[in-house]
Structure formats: structure tokens, C-alpha cells
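Schema walkthrough. Field components (list of strings):
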Amino acid sequence: MKKTTRYLTLLLVLALMLPTAAMATEYKPMSSAYLSSYNAYIQPGGNGKVSVCYSVNSATTMTDVGATTILLQESADGKVWTAVASYSSSVYPHMLAHNTPMCNTDVSYSGVSGRYYKASVTVYAGNSTGSDSRVIWTTIEKA
Amino acid sequence: MSDLGKNKNDRFAMFDRMSTVELEEILRQDSEIPSGEESDIDAILYIMEVIARREKENPTGRFCDVHTAWESFKRDYSFSADDGYSIYDDGITLDVIENKNAASVKDPTHVRRTRFRSFGRIASIAAVIVLVIALGTATAYAAGFDLWGFIAEWTRETFSFTSSAEPLPQVNQSSENGERKSFSSLEEAVSYYDISEPLVPAWIPKGYSLISVEAAEGLGNNNLIASYRSESEELIISIAEIPNGHTSVHEKDGGKVTVHKAGNTEHYIMTNEGRLKVVWTRSNFECAINGKISIEEAQKMIDSIYGG
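Field assembly_structure (string):
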């Protein structure tokens, strides 16, 4: 009984220390002077069609804002993935919006009904002073 | 060529048509694949082959000689400069690797197990400590819950909402995705999209004047954005429909997040590279104010949304 109480006390002390330890941990913040917010998701469109939709908001009006690269992957079982399509803003100019703080658009792919899809999207914002980018992943969706 | 090889080449033909920069971007994205998911190893190897082939045909000088790389590896990663042991706990000496003497690999006399065992034990303890701190971080930064079914979560790096309820139907599905529309005011844009929720601040900090109001009609949602300018700064207000529960990730720095409650809605105030940012959700909308303004000005803007 005494032993159990001692263990419980120790556990409680550790639990109380956890937030302090976390606050004391040094991180390098991933803030951005260019990017403000972003999201990306897959939207099934029926008959195997999938669209990679994304929106990017920049901190201020940018020369270019949006996505520079999208890599679409396909899977039959949701575990093993195969790259099936890649989209670049150099080929698909609508992936970037210009002289605005917002881009909200998509790219489409004719996939196979019943298969799973996910995509990585390199979101980007830049102007004459510099640029910033992040790689984000969509959730997995079934076509 | 075998059918297998032919099929593989057909499957990966798209990589041949991509630029080297694009292929390298794919490799970079693959390196950041979420844990628990597997890479398409065949595709990755094929991409590496394509890059290597192109480098051989047209050397860019970006890749150093393999012998130079090996010498660099030995110099930088050898466990100790004079004992000939590698950093890995497999008992393989550099001599063994260089001489390809497989018998020596299994020779226990070549293995300094005690030192490696101690190293492994320390690594295990360190891993447990890291895990405990990570769990503590999650505890420390667990945050509020708003009335509209979105849970606010933040770390020192980013802020986001996660959906805790069924997604609401979209207000107005667009007919042509990617189409942009301009409006003379944010109120006019909100009215155009039949948005009845109070989302637009009636008060804007002194010195700022409206520059533009745009709507971008996406496949899954519509986004509105208003840009205001002072002499040297820009203030942005954004209103986005939340498409099927997919909320945004918001960049933030290590400053603390404070909550300002108004109109039965929690507004999260944070900073990002010297700019103040307010983020909130209401009904099926995710909204933000972004600019070099004071907390007092931000709070006044928020209150003005609800008639305050």
C-alpha cells in the first residue's frame, strides 16, 4: 500500500512537471513573412475523377501565391502508394495567382473508381523581397 | 525486354518527361511522407536512375565524385578517428567494409559490445524522455473548443481548427472553379454569396483604406478576401467557406495565443513574424484578420463584427 502511494505521488509530480518541461523546450518557430494560411484536400468527382483542391493565403499581397508542385498518388489498398501524376505551375499557370493575397483553385485527374488517392502540395508565396514554401499533404480519399 | 520491365517503363514514362527540378521535388516530398505510409519504392528508384542518367549525360557538377564522398563519409561519421569502428552498433569495422571480409563481420572479437550496449541504453532513455516531453507539449498546448463544432489546436509553429462535427452543406457551390470576382466592399461580397452570419468588421483601424475585395470560387468552396492599406502596411480580412471540414493551417510564431470572446465566438489572437493575426470559425466559415495592428485594435475590430 505504502509502495503504491509512493508510485502514485511520483506519477502526480511527473504529471505536474510535464507542462513546465514542455514550455521550457526550445523550438525554432516555423512562422512566415510570406505565407499566412493554407489547406489542401482531395475531392472525388464521380467516375474515378479526383480533384486536388487547395487554398493559400499570404501575409500580404504577393507577386505569386498558390502551389508550385502537386504530386498525386494512387493506392488500391490505402497502404502501398504509386505516383500517378505530377503538376507543376510552370505547366499549369493557374496553380499560382498573381498580385493578390489569395489563391483558391484545383487540378483534376481521371482516376479509377474505388481506388484511394492522396497528394502532396508545395504551397508557395513570394514577391520581390523573397519567398516561402511548405509541403502539405491532403487526407486520403476514395475515388 | 520482359513484360515486367516494359510495364514498369510505361508506368514511369511520365518521369522521363519531367524536368530534373521537378523530379528532385518529388524526392523531397517523398522524404516527408507521413509516418505509417509507404513510399512507392519502384518509382523513387526510377526517378533516381533518371536523375543519375541525366547527370552522366550532362554533368552539372552538383554531385561529387563517389570516392570523394566515401572519404568524406569516413572522415565525418567514423565513430573514432583511430579505432576504425563505425558509429553503427553492428560490429562492422571500417576495415571489414573496405576489405569486404564477410567472415570478420561475424567475428565477436571485433565487436566492442559493451560500449555500444551503453550507448544503446542511453539512447533508449533519451527516447523515453523525448516521448514524455512530447506528450507534455501536447498537454500544454491543448486548447479551447468553440460553439460551432471546431476544436482549436495550436503549437508554437502553427494554428488550426479540427472539425468535431459533421460538415455543414456548402452555401453556394461555384459553377466555374478558379473564377475570381471583384466587389466594392466586403459587405457586398458577403451579400452576393448569401452569407447571413456576422463576419465582417464594421470598424477598421485609422489610416487604412480599402484597396480591393475579391472572391475566388473554388471547386469545393468560395473564399473572400479584402485588402486595406495604410501608408506603409497592409491589413487583410479573409472569409473562407470550410470545405467538408477541411480547415486551414495558420502560420504563427512562438508567441502565446490569447482568446477574445465576442458574439458567442472565440477569436484566437496570435502573431506571425511581427504581424498580428486573429483567427476564428463561425458556422461553416473560417475567418482571419492579418496585419500590423495592436491587440486593442484587433479586439475593437472583432467587437465591431457583433455591433460592439
